[in-house]
Amino acid sequence: MIEGLGELLAWNGAGLLSAGLTVMMFGLAVVLVVQAVINGIGPVPTSRAVRVRIRPLLPDSIGGDILELGAGWGGVAMCLARMYRNNKVVAIENSWPVWLFCWIRARLLGPDNLTVVRADLYDVRLDKAGLVYCYLFPDAMRKLRTNLTQAPPGSLLLSHTFSVPGMQPVQEVTASDLWRSPLYLYRLGAVDGSADASGGAV
Ligand SMILES: C[S@@+](CC[C@H](N)C(=O)[O-])C[C@H]1O[C@@H](n2cnc3c(N)ncnc32)[C@H](O)[C@@H]1O
Fold first, then answer.
1. 143: CATH
2. Ordered per-residue pLDDT tens for the chain, 202 residues
3. Can you tell me the distance from the alpha carbon of 79 to that of 89, in angstroms, rounded to the nearest whole number?
4. 57 and 27, same structural domain?
5. For the chain, where are the alpha helices, taking DSSP H only?
6. Gap from CA of 154 to ligand 1 centroid (Å)
7. Atom number of ligand 1 nearest to Cα 75
């Protein structure tokens, strides 16, 4: 009788746990979709083919912090943190489930110069940036123009697929992925505070 009761309780416990997990996963999926609709973009990661193309574009050292605006699942931020061990790398993401995954991943695997922050990318100050990386969408690039004026002279912006309207990249390359994704490298921080369109060799 007692044995039967124990089995019943264990069965109910396991049932409750699995129901709880299902509800939680469903809730996270709903939040993820809603946030993607609000943001105008979902957490599509930079592919390996594009990451390979990024590496030779960047200088050996960066003066200042490295920021990934809209870091998604954290793949690029982790690569950058490993490439630049002496720089602070900040991964910014506002979608709760995506941020949580990225934060746990960085805690478990990330180098200790990587910080994952839940914030709106348009609210982030860029005045300590040495390098900014983003993979967003055309409207976000337009909105970001104002924020980019905060970046110190000589800092860099690397944008996956989408260019900054009205700015001239110092380098533009194409990745070997299916979409032949373009990568735009900009030099930021002109003396007059406007995004520098003149550029120069990196
Ligand atoms: C196309 S994904 C790129 C992810 C990552 N940067 C990569 O290249 O693998 C764009 C990311 O930006 C995030 N995002 C969009 N708008 C944002 C905002 N206003 N604040 C913070 N993150 C945002 C999205 O949630 C998404 O994870």
1. 3.40.50.150
2. 566 777 777 778 888 899 999 998 999 999 999 999 999 999 999 999 999 999 999 999 999 999 999 999 999 999 999 999 999 999 999 999 999 999 999 999 989 999 999 999 999 999 999 999 999 999 999 999 999 999 999 999 999 999 999 999 999 999 999 999 999 999 998 644 444 433 433 5
3. 10
4. no
5. 2-39, 48-54, 75-83, 96-109, 138-148
6. 24
7. 9
